[in-house]
Design brief:
Length: about 400
């Protein structure tokens, strides 16, 4: 394996843990990212010349740590550094860096560590997505329907607060979990959503689908009496169960309504149903259970042959009452078109009071195109498809949109 490929593999498997460990040691997320970037650049040059190290991840961490100490703020950084605890009691850094092979709760522990309650909810989620999940600022901004500049400023303010307040990144005790749980769930939700955007699983966020599936299951085992934890785990399993049916023979994305239900993963659907039953028994509903129920209604088509669109609309109405969002409103409009006709869906979409950035969210333009086409508004549908294609969709989604645009041309 050449140096570039080896580095890519090491960054993919251990980069987030290295950045997190650096952040824990120096309490400066900018420095952690800068030092890790320096180590990655140095790796290609060194590994080409000297050959690959025995443990690439450990090599990257060691070089990044030295770089952090060598940066201009050495004195201030050392004052804030978390020094190694004496043996035999390992400190958090030692625990994190002792083994780079994933252990069942390693990344989940890191997410709890990074979702620090001293930060505003959105800031802690965004920082965790950036530092632990490796998502770009552009991706994180898109998840919040805001600009990259605005998200960069938000992240910068959060990092400054961590640095100025000397916030300690430590493993929280169980009695501290509740104050972090909402941010942990949101982190996993957004991480999975970024992976789900790409049906073919070839984007830089693709690995987050499998990891979100795994971590949500671990979290459900860790907190079996938290119904929203069970709801999130169910939701991810139901969405992921459709992955085998999301591409057609030519590699284009297949929309949910056109998927072959025989290809859906029955095992994941059964697991999700069990999680939802357990959540219902706890008699405390919430948004993740509602989102899972929406997915479960779609999954029922595997048994009934039809989707209960009226039920989907009702569930979205309840969801919007407890957690309003433009994303849910877009999805409700699509469901309403199926339940009551294209014009009803089109009007619901047009009535959304949403940020201007919604127009730059690819699923919105795809939904708009579909609703306009069903309502006979061919020119508007074509405009929406062109706008969607301009938003740099993943290859499978691009092929699907191009095909839809070509079909509109044939019917014009």
């Amino acid at each position: 394996m050449d140096a570039e490929a080896l580095l890519d593999e090491a960054v993919r498997e251990a980069g987030d843990r290295i950045r997190a460990a650096l952040a824990m040691r120096f309490r400066d997320l900018d420095m952690a990212e800068d030092a890790f970037g320096f180590a990655a650049l140095r790796a290609v040059e060194t590994w080409r010349r000297d050959g690959a190290p025995r443990d690439p991840a450990a090599w990257l961490y060691a070089v990044a740590r030295r770089r952090a100490f060598d940066l201009g703020r050495r004195a201030q950084v050392r004052e804030r550094a978390v020094h190694d605890a004496p043996e035999p009691i390992p400190d958090p850094e030692t625990i994190l860096m002792a083994a780079f092979e994933p252990i069942p709760d390693e990344r989940l522990r890191l997410i709890f560590i990074c979702c620090h309650p001293a930060l505003a909810p959105e800031a802690r989620i965004a920082l965790t997505l950036r530092t632990l999940c490796g998502l770009s600022v552009e991706r994180i901004a898109r998840a919040w329907l805001t600009t990259e500049v605005a998200m960069t400023q938000r992240l910068t303010r959060a990092k400054r607060k961590i640095r100025d307040a000397a916030i300690r990144f430590e493993i929280p005790e169980p009695d501290q979990w509740p104050e972090r749980l909402e941010a942990v769930l949101a982190t996993l939700e957004i991480a999975y959503a970024q992976a789900y955007e790409d049906a073919a699983g070839v984007s830089d966020a693709a690995d987050l689908a499998r990891e979100s599936l795994r971590l949500s299951g671990l979290l459900a085992e860790l907190l079996p009496d938290e119904p929203e934890v069970l709801g999130l785990a169910a939701m991810i399993r139901l969405a992921e169960s459709r992955r085998p049916a999301r591409l057609d023979d030519l590699g284009a994305m297949t929309p949910l309504s056109e998927q072959d239900v025989g290809l859906w993963d029955a095992g994941l659907i059964r697991d999700a149903a069990g999680l939802l039953r357990r959540a219902a028994d706890l008699r405390r509903s919430g948004p993740y259970q509602l989102m899972a129920a929406i997915h479960a209604t779609h999954a029922a088509r595997r048994e009934t042959g039809a989707t209960a669109w009226g039920d989907v609309v009702t569930l979205y109405d309840i969801l919007l009452a407890v957690r309003p969002s433009a994303v849910a409103e877009v999805n409700r409009a699509v469901a309403l078109a199926e339940a009551e006709g294209a014009e009803a869906g089109f009007q619901a979409l047009a009535a959304i009071d949403a940020p201007a950035r919604l127009a730059e969210w690819l699923p919105y333009q795809a939904a708009r195109a579909g609703l306009c086409a069903k309502a006979g508004r061919q020119a508007e549908a074509a405009d929406a498809l062109r706008r969607a294609l301009a938003l740099h969709p993943a290859p499978a989604e691009r092929l699907f949109l191009q095909r839809r645009l070509a079909d509109l041309g044939k019917t014009a």
